[in-house]
Amino acid sequence: MGHIDKRTRNAAAFWCTVMMIALGASDALRGVFLPVFKGTFGLSQTEASVIIMVSYIGNMVFLFLGGYISDRVDRRKFIIAVTLMWMSALCIYIFTENYILIVCAMLLSMGASTMLSTTVNVITPIAFMSPALMINIFNFIQGIGIVGAQKIGGQFTGSIVYWHRANAVLLAMGLVGSAALVFMKLPKPSSEKSSGGYGKIVKNPACFRLILLFGTYCVAEHGLQNWLTTYGSEQLGYTVSQSADFLSYFFLGITVGRLVFAPIAAKIGARKTLLVFSLTAGAAYMIGVLAGKSGIFLLCLSGLGFSVLWPTMVLLISKCYPSEQAGTATGLVIGSATLFDIAFNALFGRFTEAVGLANSILILPAAMLIYCIVYLELHMYLKKVGE
């Protein structure tokens, strides 16, 4: 773990807590205020979707480049630089009302936000004695930011003025959280020669498995996030409001589960945690979708199983690679998984038009099935090599 003093651990805990709330809220506000952008700027559906697409592109660029850079520079300086990028985008949101500027700032804010939340997951094994416990707690805290922004922000979307005010609050939180960086002394990364580039990362037999694991997970979770409301209202006979409630139950399960199951993840380790929760969550998710209306509550309940998957998967990357390669590997794996998101969002609408939503929605349980198969194979591989 390296030589981490108590002051650094306390500062890291404070920074991670404040920033994960702010970053979760920052990510959620994009969707909450999308209707406001459409009304304020008179956007077409295509123009509005550009905002979402640019967010994914920002994620991918920051993860690929940021992950590589983070293993080669002072970690604290890297965090400060990315935080300043995120906060500069917030300043654009606060002081301007221009569609083009918002699109440009969205690339910057969402990319930097994703890089910072990923950095939290990377430094947790370095700074804390129980990384599996802490990584789930911090992701639970991020969930509070997401749910809080959705619930509170949803009440104040009548005017773009509230968009300015919400980002001003996030900027203040960013400044408060950044104050803790003064007291953080993280171990310096190894030299570029020892950490290697993407060539060494890709040569690891676990690399392709991890990319496929993360990619199919993203399709399963984000696909449900983007389409459950539409699917429930158009195919299952629920109202839009009821369908949105089901989606909120799923993510409430994710948020609560991260706190409830964090001690279990810490006790049994990353591999066993993923084995148990992947199979139970996967079974509930797939049956829930395939059963249609009668499976909707099982689908919502699967959120509890999903709760620890993402943070524990990120932790698993650090177990597949040495610490000097962790940032590069995490950036490459999650950045590559973002391509699955981009491809899914680009093709799902057209596929739905061709075969109907009732058939196209089956892509989601198919993705979850592939995820489970890939993890079972990865689990056996890691067990064989003694990871």
Short note summarizing the structure:
This protein is mainly alpha-helical and 387 residues long.
Provide a descriptive summary of the structure in words.
By secondary structure, this protein is mainly alpha-helical. 83% of the residues lie in helices and 0% in strands. The protein has 18 helices and no strands. It has helices at residues 6-32, 34-41, 45-70, 75-95, 99-127, 131-153, 161-178, 192-195, 198-203, 206-234, 240-260, 262-268, 270-290, 296-306, 309-320, 326-355, 357-360, 363-385. The protein starts with 5 loop residues before the first helix and ends with a helix. The mean pLDDT is 88.
Shape: globular
Helix content: over 70%
Structural class estimated from helices and strands: mainly alpha
* Low-confidence residue ranges: none
The total beta strand count reads: 0
Order of helices and strands: HHHHHHHHHHHHHHHHHH
Main beta sheet: strand number and arrangement?
Answer: none
Q: In whole angstroms, how far apart are the ends?
A: 17 Å
Please tell me the overall pLDDT. 88
Q: β content, as a range?
A: under 5%
As a whole number of angstroms, the C-alpha radius of gyration is 20 Å
Q: How many individual helices?
A: 18
Write a concise keyword list for the protein shown above.
387 residues, mainly alpha, 0% strand, globular
Write the layout of secondary structure elements.
Blueprint: H1 6-32, H2 34-41, H3 45-70, H4 75-95, H5 99-127, H6 131-153, H7 161-178, H8 192-195, H9 198-203, H10 206-234, H11 240-260, H12 262-268, H13 270-290, H14 296-306, H15 309-320, H16 326-355, H17 357-360, H18 363-385
